[in-house]
Structures are given as C-alpha cells and as structure tokens.
Design brief:
heterotrimer, A mainly alpha (116), B mainly alpha (216), C mainly alpha (608), B: 216 residues, mainly alpha, Four Helix Bundle (Hemerythrin (Met), subunit A), two-stranded antiparallel sheet, 5 helices, disordered N terminus, C: 608 residues, Cytochrome C Oxidase, Chain A, 2 domains, 17 helices, 0% strand
C-alpha cells in the first residue's frame, strides 16, 4: 500500500459511522449518570442496601467509570482505535507517568506511615 | 514549507513520506501528551491538599466560614446538578465536533457548519456555567485565597476553563473559515487538529469531574 | 510580509544580510547561531558570577561581597548556567545539526523555532535585568519554599525568578515539540530510527524529557506566583500549605532536567569519539536503550534531593533504590565509550581531547552521584560542598566539556573556518587543570563540613587552603575561556583563512556531505540513506574521500518565508507575564492582546 494513502495510517478499513458516534455519546451520558447516581447514593446513604455496597467502593467505582469514559473518547472520538499506533503511544506514555506521579504524591503526603 | 528539488515533500501540510503521518497531527498529539503532565500536577495538588483546609467553605461538608466578618456555619458549597449539566454538555460537544469533522471530510458543508456551531455553543455554555459557578462560590465566601480548597479548586478548574476558552476561540475561528468556504475536504485537517484539542479538554474534565465534585 | 522567493545561492543578496534578516529569520542554521552566540554570552556572565563568588571565598571572613549580593550571585550563577547557558548551547546544536543529520531542509515548524529563540532571549534579558535594580533572584536556583514566600522574600527578586523561568519554559516546550516532530517525521528516505546518528537519538529523548518535565515546574511556579501575588497558601504553613510540596514538584521537574542537561552531551561525545577513533560507536543499540531507560527512570528518582526532609524510611528506600538503579544504564554508556576508543586508530585533535576528558570527568561525577544515593551517607553530604563537587563534575566536566568538544568539532561546518588546534589544546589543558583544581578539593571540603551557600567562613576550620586553591582554579578556568575567545577571534580574522572543506575530520554523518557552511537549503537533493554512518559507507564504496560538494544555485527549492510574527508573539508573552509583578491587569491584557494578535497573524500568514 502506498505510504501516501491515508488508509496506510489507519489500522481498520472501515471508518466509524455517525451512528457509532451517537451510540458512544449515549454511553458517555449513561456512564456520567451512573457516576452521579453512585455519588448521590453514597452521599444520602439511601437506598440503604445499595449504599452499603457503593459507599465503601465509591472511589474504585468512580475511577472505573471515568476511565471507561476516557477510553471511549480517546478511542472513538479521538480516533486512536483506527489511527497509527504512535499517536496512542504519545498519549499513553505520558498518561502512565502522570498516573504514577499522582499516586506517588498522594502516598508521599499521606499521613499514614507504612512503617513505624 | 520546503519542497526538495528532487520532489520529496517536506510540507507541514503533507504526510511524511517516511512515517505516513501528518506533521501537524503529530505535533498536536505530542502537545497533548505534554499537557497530561500539566494537569496531573494540578490534580495531584488538589488531592494532596484535599481535607487540609483550615477553614471553610468546603466542597461537600459543612464547616465554619468567615462571612461578613463573622465566623459562621456554612454548608458544602458544590451544586452537583449544575456541574452535571455542564459536564453533559461538554461531553456532547465532543460528539458534535466529531460530526462536524465528518462533514468537513465528506465535503458536506451544512453538516460541517451546523455541528461546528453546536460545538462552539456547547463550549460557550460550559464556560458560562463555570463563570456562574465561580461567581456564585465567591459570593458564598470561597475566594481564591480563602483556604486550600479555594486555591486548588480555582487553579485547577480555572486552568481547565482557560483551555476550554482557547478551544472555543480556535473552533470559532475554524467555523468562520468554514462559513467563508475555506474548509474544503483537503483542509479538513485544520478542523481535525482543533477537534483533537477539544476532545483532550473534554477528557481532562472527565477526570476532574469525579475527582473534584464526586469524591468526598 | 515578503512573499518573493529569495535567491538561495547568493548569501550576500538583499534579504540575506543585515539585522532585519536575522530578526525575521526562520532558518534553523541561523537560529542555531543566534542561540549559540546568546548562550555563550550568558555563559560568560554566569562565569563572571562564579569568579566573584570564588573571589569572596578565597579568604576566610572576606568582605568583598555583602551577604545579600552573594545570595544573588550564587542564585543567578546556577539559574544562568542551567537555563541560559547549557540548555541553549544544547539548543544551538539541536537547531544546527538535527535537520542536517536527518537529511531535512529545516525543522517541522520554522517560525515556531524562531519563536522559541526570541522567547529565550527575552526571558534571559528579563531575568538579568533584575541586576540593574539590585533585585536579582536570591533564594537559590531551586527557590525553596517558604523562603521564597512574600513574607520572607518581600522584594521583587523572586518575582523576577518566577516570571523569568515561566517565560523560559515556554521557549523550551515549544522547541522540544518542534524537534520531536522534526526527528520523527522529517527524516530523509532510508533514515530509519536505528540508523540515526546517536546525537539525534539523544536529542529525541531529551525533547521527550523537556515535554514531560517542564509542565510540572510550570505548575510549581504558578503556585508560587499565586502565593506571592495573590496571597494563597500553596507553600505557606500559616495557611495550611506544605513547603515540601514545592520541593516535590520542583524536583519532579529538576531531576529530569539534569538528564536534559547531560543527554545532548552524551550524544555529542558519541559522535566525536568514533570519528577520532576511526571506529563506529560501540554498542549502538545499547546506547539507544540505555539513554531511553535513563530518561524514563529519571522520573522515578526525584526525592533523592529530599533525603533530609523526613519522608520516612519507605520513601527513602524506594528513591535510594531507583537512584542506584539509574547508575546501571549510565555505566553501560561509559563502557561503550571506552569500547569505542579501545583498539581504535586515535587522532588526538582538540575535539577528541575534550571528549576523552568528558568520559574521565563524568566517571568522577557519576561516582560522587552514586555516593549520594545512600540516604545515610547523603545526610552528611547534602547541603555541603560535596554536592557542589558532584554536580560540577557532571555539569562542567560533563556537559561543558562535551559542548566545547562539539564547538571545536562543528565550528568548521557552521562557519567554514577551522579553529586553531594548538590553541584548542592549550585551552583544553587550562580547562582541565582549572576545572579539577576548582572542584576536586570540594569533595574534601564537603566531607569536612563546609556548607553550601554561605558567603563566608571562619578561619581555623581547615577550609582556608582548599578555598584558596579552588579560587585559583577558577581563575585558570576564566583564563581558559579567554583563550577560547581568542581562538575564535583569531581563526575568523587571520589571513590566509584556514578554510574548512566539507568534511575536515573524515566523519560519518550527513552534515559533512554538504559545503561548509551549508547553503540555505541544506541539501541540493534530499539524500537517500542506506546505512548507519552513511558517509563512511559512501567513502568506502568510493574507495577514498568524496569530491568536495559544489555550491549550487538552489533555484526551484522553496523555503519558508522569513517572518516577524514569532518575535511579536514572544513580546506579547513577555508583556503578559510582566503584568504579574508590575503594571497589573493592564499589562496582562495588553500582553494577551499582543500575543493573540501576533499568533493570529502568524497563523494566517502566507508561508511560501
């Protein structure tokens, strides 16, 4: 395939359709609604049964939901799924460093010391 | 940009003969990677100082605030419903711009201009929501220097809002170009670059929104 | 703006000469020369600051400098040498060499390139302007909080520092973006990544470090500016802030920064040793991967600058381990340089002297560095002259030696004239003796307990003789740079000129295949590359030296038009940032307006 052919930089031959974009938008909306709902359940403490499960796990729940939204926008709207891998690399490597940074700083500033 | 005598093209508009990638697209992704570290530092600081404010207002809990010269009880300052609407609008604006880009790439002028206008309006709504929120908080006693929450909150969301504003200006500029007929399919990259920046700004908010507003 | 196509064969034609042509240039070679000249001047200023420091410390209880002036001098010495000296000197080489080495006509974004230079110049002038009002930065090049708070630093000194560094940061990030994209996307046909010259590889990795590290210091500086200008408490304990947050953010930037300072030097030495050993670089792939590993791991060691801040045994251990680990890829490089020279047919010219000197001095600097990696040992060493010894060995014996080696090596390519080799060797010995005399005793001085950043010391502590020796050494160093200036002046001025051919050193990389100095368009025809060390292969295939490349007309080669919008936009940034310390919102708005106006005109300007 000629290097000048734009398809050379795309991994898939089929372009996402408007329908796919719309479905991604709907999923993003639903995930956001779930995030807010989880927050509200945890905040109000009701329904009690659900709150018992959600409240202690609120942070992992929010992390998973927001990570899913992040991935959807990156892969489909930013086209990373179809584009050349280098673009994903340019995003993922700094992201890894960024995540390590956030976690390291939180740990360094946490009041709890892990050893006496 | 430069053309070689022998015909090799080194034009920032054209894909590289070597990698097949458009140079400006590579540049915008590189920039996005760099910006990840910028926002990571701001978010880290917000999290490190979370719960360490010496005085209110606080995001969710009640606290003591200094209002009108007196120490008073004040409630948690966040109004989740407003921010949620803004969040949804920003998310949908990413959808709008993808549709606009599709219009640009297929030469569909109405689709391009319609969806791009919607994107710009969505961005303006989000900025407007933030300005309203900041003003509202300020009147409820949360100044920039009131406490650590104020400083970290306004800095983090303020920089994000500035990025959104720059994105709105950029998209509006491209919209003007499109209306003037200067965005044919060959030049769709101009919109794609702005759209990538816009999605990044959205993605940063996807992280900020739960971290700041939904974690107690 | 002019849209005429310039005649690229005649460098004396209108548009090519004169001040305006330099102000509007977007040619990477000219921008490289601008960087080099400006950086060298700042380097001499930084050297003068050092000499003043050393003069003050020559005797105990000296009163040559007041404590206040002393604080400004050591702060500006560090800030200048790092941000206005070594980094832009490296940028000179990035600019001049990268397009040539990869077979391109220019960088990916020529006007952004010019913009980076102008922002650097304006930032450097802004920072040094502070001296004129006796308000030079005075809290160390690392500006620890909360000494830098408005309470403890009420004057404008730290404002100059905060704003100056933020301006310089813009230049660095813009340039890094440019060079990164250039190296990835503008390589000539056949120039695969693993065929690139090692200097290009090290530069590529450096740009990535710049892009990832500078945003962090930008945030750190924003917080400091907020504390000082608006009264927040990011770093002030009174408002709930934690001063060590500054240290963490600063060193998350600061440690990658030292790799930013040394990796280009690694690249330069990796070009010079093979040429003067007449042997290819030993272990090319290992050099690439060790460089990448050093850079990546460099983000995981930052708190070794903070062993004395009470982080606790877990944090101390983690950072101690990562710091020790980073010595491994560094050691790989040193062995590979030795392996390159081993068994080679050595030609001991000035560039080789400095390159070999680099290896030796960097080993010493690396050894003292790894000694710091042990927290208990570091508790004694930190904040003493032992640290000063360490970083001067790696930064002077390392970066500066390599930059001088590169200057001698590439001067003929850049200016078409060879520097005098005998004077160069004289400079080497003066530099070598001066450097070791100045910095070696500091190891002992530090272990004997002399702290850093003290403007004087009492007699009778055993510090006197070492300090005097160090001062004498620094004077020899000063002399060595006068010798270098003389060499440059003499070589350019003397008749008959020692004209440099295209390939005076019998070197291996593409920049030596075109005339010295290169024509504006670099290559008449974009080369096709088939090997690493392409030029050596071509000479081998030809059975001997290649014919001297002719200067051709360059008709039909389109190059980007000159432009002044990068300069205008740079001025906008300066004005905008100045508003935070004087002039207020009016200046912020004016600066933003100039910035936006410049950027829009830049974006819509015909590029030719």
């Amino acid at each position: 395939m000629d290097l000048m052919d734009p398809r050379a930089v795309h991994k898939e031959r089929t372009h996402p359709t408007a329908g796919l974009y719309l479905r991604v938008a709907v999923v993003l909306f639903v995930l956001t609604a779930l995030e807010v709902y989880a927050f509200e359940v945890s905040r109000r403490g009701s329904p009690a049964g659900l709150a018992a499960i959600v409240s202690p796990l609120i942070i992992p729940i929010l992390v998973v939901l927001s990570a899913a939204k992040f991935a959807l926008v990156a892969m489909f709207y930013m086209h990373l799924k179809q584009d050349a891998t280098i673009f994903s690399g340019l995003f993922v490597l700094p992201l890894i460093i960024a995540i390590v940074l956030v976690m390291a700083l939180i740990m360094l500033f946490s009041v709890v010391h892990l050893m006496p | 940009m430069a053309h070689a005598h022998a015909g090799t093209i080194h034009h920032a508009e054209q894909p590289s003969a070597h990698t097949g990638l458009e140079t400006r697209k590579l540049a915008i992704w590189t920039f996005i990677g760099s910006e990840c570290l910028f926002f990571a530092s701001l978010i880290s600081t917000y999290l490190v100082y979370k719960g360490k404010s010496l005085i209110g207002p606080l995001p969710h809990e009640s606290s003591q605030c200094m209002l009108h010269g007196r120490l008073q009880e004040c409630e948690g300052i966040f109004e989740i419903s407003l921010v949620t609407v803004g969040t949804a609008v920003l998310l949908f604006s990413s959808f709008f711009v993808v549709m606009a880009l599709n219009g640009a790439q297929t030469g569909n002028r109405r689709r391009l201009i319609g969806w791009l206008t919607a994107t710009v309006l969505g961005g303006l709504f989000f900025v407007g929501m933030q300005v309203y929120e900041f003003t509202h908080f300020f009147h409820k006693g949360l100044g920039y220097t009131t406490n650590l929450f104020g400083s970290t909150f306004y800095t983090l969301t303020g920089f994000h809002g500035t990025h959104v504003t720059i994105g709105v200006i950029w998209l509006a500029t491209v919209l003007v170009l499109a209306i003037r007929g200067k965005l044919p399919p060959e030049k769709a990259l101009n919109l794609e670059l702005a759209a990538l920046y816009w999605h990044f700004v959205d993605v940063v908010w996807i992280v900020i929104f739960p971290t700041v507003y939904l974690m107690r | 703006m002019a849209t005429s196509v310039l005649d690229h064969s005649d460098s004396t034609a209108p548009g090519h000469t004169g001040l305006w042509s330099w102000i509007t240039t977007v040619d990477h070679k000219r921008i490289g020369i601008l960087y080099g000249a400006t950086a060298f001047l700042f380097f001499l200023i930084g050297g003068l600051e050092a000499l003043l420091i050393r003069w003050q410390l020559a005797r105990p209880e000296n009163d040559f400098l007041s404590p206040e002036l002393y604080n400004q001098l050591f702060t500006m010495h560090g800030t200048t040498m790092i941000f206005l000296g070594v980094m832009p000197l490296s940028a000179m080489f990035f600019n001049f060499l990268i397009p040539l080495m990869i077979g391109a006509r220019d960088v990916a974004f020529p006007r952004l390139n010019a913009f980076s230079y102008w922002v650097f110049l304006l930032g450097g002038l802004f920072l040094n302007f502070s001296f004129l009002i006796n308000a030079a930065p005075n809290a160390g090049w690392f500006g620890y909080a909360n000494l830098t708070s408005r309470q403890y630093s009420p004057g404008l000194n730290i404002d100059f520092w905060v704003i100056g560094l933020q301006i310089l940061g813009v230049a660095s990030i813009a340039a890094a973006l440019n060079f990164f994209v250039t190296i990835v996307n503008l390589r000539a046909p056949g120039m695969r990544l693993m065929r690139m010259p090692m200097f290009v590889w090290m530069s590529l990795i450096t740009q990535m470090l710049l892009l990832l590290a500078f945003p962090v210091i930008t945030v750190a500086l924003v917080f400091l500016m907020a504390d000082r200008t608006f009264g927040s408490s990011f770093y002030t304990p009174g408002g709930g802030g934690d001063p060590t947050l500054w240290q963490h953010l600063f060193w998350i930037f600061g440690h990658p920064e030292v790799y930013i300072l040394i990796l280009p030097a690694f690249g330069i030495v990796s070009e010079i040793l093979p040429v003067f050993s007449r042997k290819p670089l030993f272990g090319y792939a290992a050099m690439v991967f060790s460089g990448a590993f050093i850079a990546f791991l460099g983000f995981g060691v930052w708190s070794h600058h903070m062993f004395s801040t009470g982080m606790g045994p877990v944090a101390d251990s983690v950072f101690s381990l990562t710091t020790m680990l980073i010595a491994v890829p560094t050691g790989v490089k040193i062995f590979n340089w030795i392996g390159t020279v081993w068994g080679g047919s050595l030609r001991l010219k000035t560039p080789m002297y400095f390159a070999l000197g680099f290896v030796a001095m960097f080993i010493i600097g690396g050894l003292s560095g790894v000694m710091h990696s042990s927290p208990p040992a570091d508790l004694q060493q930190t904040d003493t002259y032992f640290v000063v010894a360490h970083f001067h060995y790696v930064l002077f014996g390392g970066s500066i030696f390599a930059l001088i080696a590169g200057a001698y090596f590439w001067f003929p390519k850049m200016f078409g004239v060879l520097l005098d080799d005998r004077i160069g060797k004289l400079q080497f010995w003066l530099t070598f003796v001066g450097m070791n005399l100045t910095f070696f005793p500091m190891h002992f001085l530090g272990l004997h307990g002399m702290p850093r950043r003290v403007y004087t010391y009492p007699s009778g502590l055993g510090f006197d003789l070492m300090n005097l020796t160090q001062t004498i050494g620094s004077l020899i160093l000063g002399l060595s740079f006068l010798v270098m200036l003389y060499n440059i002046w003499k070589s350019v001025r003397e008749q008959p000129r020692r004209i440099a051919p295209a390939d005076p050193w019998d070197a291996a990389t593409l920049e030596w295949s075109i005339p010295s100095p290169p024509q504006e368009f670099n290559f008449a025809e974009i080369p096709t590359v088939e090997h690493r060390d392409e030029l050596w292969w071509r000479k081998r295939k030809a059975g001997g030296p290649l014919p001297e490349p002719a200067r051709v007309s360059g008709k039909g080669i389109h190059l980007p038009n000159p432009s002044y919008w990068p300069l205008v936009t740079a001025v906008g940034i300066l004005v905008f940032m100045t508003g935070f310390m004087a002039g207020g919102v009016v200046l912020n708005l004016a600066g933003a307006a100039i910035l936006f106006f410049g950027a829009f005109r830049w974006a819509f300007e015909p590029t030719g």
